[in-house]
Each structure stands twice: as structure tokens, then as C-alpha cells.
Amino acid sequence: MIQAPHEPRPLVILDRDGVINQDSDQYIKSPDEWIPIPGSLEAISDLCHDGWQVFVATNQSGLARGLFDLPTLHAIHRKMTSAIEEAGGELAGIFFCPHGPDAGCLCRKPAPGLLQDISRRLDRPLHGVPVVGDSLRDLTAAQMVGAQPCLVLTGHGRATLEAQASKPLPPQTLIFEDLAEASAHLRQHPYTA
What is the per-residue pLDDT for 144? Predict the structure, then answer.
């Protein structure tokens, strides 16, 4: 019997602060400051139950700024991972940029390095893969790798939308109220790579 080639699982990449958890202009510096946005954990769980792989790609310049250290960031991510697992979901991976805005690195969004790392790790292109963020940086990084930019209006999302007269969103950006609405849409309209 000839088996059909294994179809890769659908993939979604999420920004962290302002998408999964509440953001802060003072940075999320401890596990206590990591507070999920209502509905976000369930949204990730729903994606997982529908067979999606969920990755996080996040700028964490607070490391370079000395606001927290690597063990603290890992503790924040353990809290996030545990909360997602308690809601019935799981993360396939967390990718972060530790550099400041002046470092000139290739991984800090809007540069595409974090997304390219995910692509290399999975050995698959990101064409059409939804990338959900609340800032123009997230959307620009998505556009640079041929992914589908998705803006949520939580975190800095509403300000990002209102600023598009001077800082236009990438073409074909999808706009959602929050991650729960984005998740529902993506599960009903999975992309085709």
C-alpha cells in the first residue's frame, strides 16, 4: 500500500507581549508581571487541538538593558508555558532576541532572523504562515519572510492601526480584535502553503 506524503501540521507564530500577555512600557521583568490577556490561553489551546504548531517569537531587549537576566526570562517563560498547558495547549518553541535596538542584530524584529530561525529549525518555508503581533515590527518581519501578517488590537495593536497613515501596515494584513478572534479565524480558514 502506498501512503500519501505526510502533510505538515499548520504553523502559527505569535509575538508574546501584547498578544498572549498584557504588555507594559516598563517591560515584563518577573513572572509576577506576566499576566495573560483574557482568552489568549484558550485561543492557543484551540489551535493546538485543531493540530496547529504554535511558536512564540519575541523581542526581549530588557535583557540587554539589564532590566532582568536570562534565568528570570526562563522563569517567565516557564510560567507562560505552564499556563498554556493548564489551558490544554502547548508551545512548539519559544524564540527570543536578547539584543537592544542599537545592536544591529539580525534577530530583533522587524529583522526576520527569529522567523528564519523557526523556518530553519522546521526545515520548511514560512510562505503564508500566519504571524500574529501587535506592532509594525511583527508585521514587517512577517512580510520579509513571505508570511501572513496578522495584527491584534491588544497591547500596542490599536496604536499601530491608528498610526498607519504615517506608518502603513504591510499589504494584506489581517486585523483582529485579539488572539481569540485571530485563532477562531485561522482555524476556520487554514492557510495553504
Answer: 97
